[in-house]
Amino acid sequence: MKAFQERSKALEQYAWYDETTGEVQINWSLINTIKNSDKGQQVEDYVKELERIRDDIQKAEDDLEDLGDSVVDIRNQIEDFWYD
C-alpha cells in the first residue's frame, strides 16, 4: 500500500483510501475539471487500484474474523472434550 501511495502521490487529490471508514473517497468535483484524456485515464486507473486495494483489505479482514471464529469453535470443542 505504501509503495502504491508513493507512486500515486500526485493523484491523491482526486481520490484516497479513508482508513477510518474503509472506503475510497473520490473528489468528483475535481475529477470533473480534468480536460486532458491522459490525465483522466491516470485518475481512472488510480481509482480502480484504490478500489481493488480496498476490496483486498476487506477480504483480509473478513478472513481474519472467520479464522478467529474457527479458533473459538476449536477451543470450545476441546473444552467440551476435556470437561465431559
In words, what does this structure look like?
The protein has three helices and two strands, in the order αββαα. It has a two-stranded antiparallel sheet. The protein has helices at 2-7, 28-31, 37-83, and strands at residues 15-18, 23-26. The N and C termini lie far apart (48 Å). Helices cover 68% and strands 10% of the residues. The chain has one domain. By secondary structure, the chain is mainly alpha-helical.
Topology of helices and strands:
Blueprint: H1 2-7, E1 15-18, E2 23-26, H2 28-31, H3 37-83
Antiparallel strand pairs: 1-2
Regarding quaternary structure, how should these chains be classified?
single chain
Anisotropy-based shape = rod-shaped
Largest sheet: number of strands, sense, barrel closure = 2 strands, antiparallel
Radius of gyration: 20 Å
Which structural category fits the helices and strands?
Answer: mainly alpha
Q: How many strand segments?
A: 2
Poorly predicted parts: none
- What share of the residues does DSSP label as strand, in percent? 5-15%
Please report the distance between the alpha carbons of the first and last residues. Answer: 48 Å
